[in-house]
Prior knowledge:
Elements: H1 2-58, H2 61-70
Amino acid sequence: MKKTKFWTLLIVSGLFLIGLAWQASRFADLSARARSLEKAQEAWIVENRKVDAQIAQLSSRVRTQSMARRLGLAEAKPEDVTKVQIAPKGRSE
């Protein structure tokens, strides 16, 4: 009877230690993956800030005006503008 309890306790303890080692290994793996994803996220944030800065630069009014001047474009005069209004369907004027 004592031998049976001893072997049962030994097997349960062994399984417990195997489970503990597996959990520690899994935790280390997940921690490394989380660090990797955080680094990737930081890289995307930096890249996003660069793109935002480029968008702000490219869409600035001063830059657009200077580009238009280089292309030989001029601001439209009020007499050169034609406004067209479309009446809603079913209404004719």
